[in-house]
Amino acid sequence: MSRSTPNRTRLAHAGVLTLMLSGAALIPLAAQERVLPPPESPEPVDAMPAQGTIAAPKPGPQQDGDPGGPGQGRQAQFAPVGAVDLLLVDAFQLGNSSIPWGTIATVPAGDAVQFKRGRCVFRYKYTTRNDGAAGAGAFTNRIHRDAVAGPVSATDPVTGLMAGALVNSDGHLLLAPGTTLLYVAVDDGAAIAETDEANNLRRVKVTVKGECR
After folding, report:
1. CB-CB contact of 130 with 165 (8 Å)
2. Domain count, the chain
3. pTM for the full predicted model
4. Which one of 58, 96, 164, 192 is most buried, counting C-beta atoms within 10 A?
């Protein structure tokens, strides 16, 4: 028993020394290692669009009077589709006479193409124009005698008229010797909605001189 005690003591001392040496070896290694702080989060960067795609523009501040939305700049404003505006242009042709609208003219009976029951048959022609921004559908022009709503002397249907276009209407009028008021009404009956209905009616005052025979 007395011999074993020193051995145990020496073994204990050796174990302590081993632990101390081991610890001493570990401490410098631990001291050399630095614990790095976690990397700071990078500032957010706008994602780049993938190839073949276009990045949507960032919205900017709303501009006053900008109906196109924020950041889009002033957008073109599209006016509503324009309406039709039919009117009579140039002059009224009767026989060999060109009569400006709203004037008086004397037409010789000899200009008639024929005579019928004591009256003269004259060729006539006039022009209708569409000054509107939209095309017109079918409408009917009429020539009334002696009053705006007087007897109809001629009826001229028009199948349609594009914006800015012209159409000529012609035919024959039967007039007696003497003076007659002729009222030419474009779109008589107002089948077409127009921006200006006041320019649809024109008149001329015609005196047929001579005998129709």
Report:
1. yes
2. 1
3. 0.62
4. 192
